[in-house]
Amino acid sequence: MQRTSARLTSDATPVTWLGANYWSRTGGPLMWRSYDPDVVTEELRVLRDHGLNMTRSFYYWPDFMPTPYTVDEEKCALFADFLDRHQELGMTTVPTFIVGHMSGENWDPSWRGGRDLYSDVWMVARQAWFAGQMVRRFKEHPAVAGWLVSNEMPIYGNRTQDRETVSSWAQIIADAVRAAGGTQPFSLGEGAWGRENTGNENGFSVRYTAEICDFLGPHVYRMEDDPVRQHHAAAWVCELTGTFGRPVVLEEFGVSSDFVSGPNAAHYYRQVLHNSLLAGATGWIAWNNTDYDNLKHQPPYLHHAFEMHFGLTDAKGTAKPQLRELKDFAELLEKVDFGRTRRADTDTAVVISSYLDTEYPFTRPEDADHIYRTARQAWVAGRLAGLAPAVTRESDDLPGEARLYLVPSTKQLLSPTWYELEDRARAGATVYVSYCPGYHDEQRGPWYAHLNEMFGVEHQLEYGLVDPIEDDEVAFTFVRPFGNLPQGARLTFRAAGTENSRVFLPVEPTDAEVLAVDAHGRPALLLRRVGEGSVILSTYPLEHMAAVTPRVNPEDGVTLYDALGAHAEVRRPVTVADPRVVVDRLEHEDGRVFVWLVSQARQEIMVKPVVEGDATLYDLDGTPADTVCLPERGVRVLELRGA
Fold first, then answer.
1. Where does the signal peptide begin and end (predicted)?
2. Do 68 and 212 fall into the same domain?
């Protein structure tokens, strides 16, 4: 199964954006009122000297468009100087038109008068006119690398949730940019926050954005309760976003030094950069270039103090730990010639229910949130098991072919999808499904088209009731060998969930083998052989329980997935026994294979990778790498030769 590695190109050459969202420390969003060209050059040089090659910049809307029919020529002259300074340093920038929302405050031009940004025809025309004006002025400048419509438009213009209206607004702005001669890569700057990625309806559609834009740009600032999920939060969104076939640029990510220590900021940046790369991101723009301690009396920093300290440098221009991580990352990208690599194919796919992105009659918003959280937990566990899972969307008819399909803690799929999954098992795949009746009590139960027949069981459910998990810990004891697990192996899982979801599915096997039983001797994991493959049922919502449990990863779901991979004969050229280490690969077009080892451990660890066949691992300097030392939450990249 192929994983997306789509890339931005310039003159048919792959382009990798590695940069920072930029406001000068002289004024933040008001920098154009106090523009200091020498400070700008100094700030850009620090970024350039740490390996960054671009910025994302902003036309602060109230300043650049003081009336509905004029632009401020003085501000445009300053922006031209800003572009020149990028060019002098060999850097580029991606200007953003409608700003709009920024750092905890919305900044309206004085003439807006409360007009709706999407549905008011005059207001949409003024936005399109402004975008066209900016493109005509600056489209020929070699420092302009692309165009963005907005900064997080769902926050700024959230008065409508009408997809048709929002999509029409986006189309009109896109047409204005192209009509004005903007040939550079174009996107919306909306954060890729559509329902397809979040389960929440805000009028934006990632699918439609992919139709009219050249790249997709997630913005990710998660608050989590599990370090491993936090380290993969941005990567997960990149994986989801990549299903639409466009290049993925992690357009915003970062940390405030008020929320995290220097060493932990470095760990976070390292994890986000490498994990998102392995999840398909091919560009990164950190938030943001500098701190703003001198602007404490100016909104938004007046009322959002933590917004002062997202910088890669402090307010004096000194590099913070996260900028040094970017420098290391830039050097690595050059060593592996990243622009000419692609993600290795995978044999594993996590199935994303269409109930995440589609509103079906008489369903609840909680259904989408449940799908998002459990699918993410399954994807993370799959990565820790060395399966390098892709995602396949039910809404796209499950594109691609995998040896192992993970359908985690699932309440709802469309009826034909259940039959399609069984057909794929019949053709040789392994389809794993874990039961869950959902968060809430509305039509609580399995919406499976043919549960008994598909899994070779007779369920014993009572109408309107659930079977609660009695124990604080769920134990699976294997009554026969499975995958790489011997008979007698025992896996444990912390029980968690709501009164509706902390439940199990009582079944009696008919045409299925019992692989494992729970602590009460009931079937917990069952296998039914179907044609050349098999379907496997967990009667417990393992991924859901993990997804709602703080600081749970890595947990025994990783061990189960490892066994599923062995059973399905998933190809894993390099593995590591320690579940705290993610293993994945990039392939260079010249045949070289690079292996990433990404540690989630809070201390230095030594691992001995296992390599299939006669292949051998080497450090990038050519030294054999039989045993690898990984520093705290560290990353090592090796070359696999002879694969």
1. none
2. yes
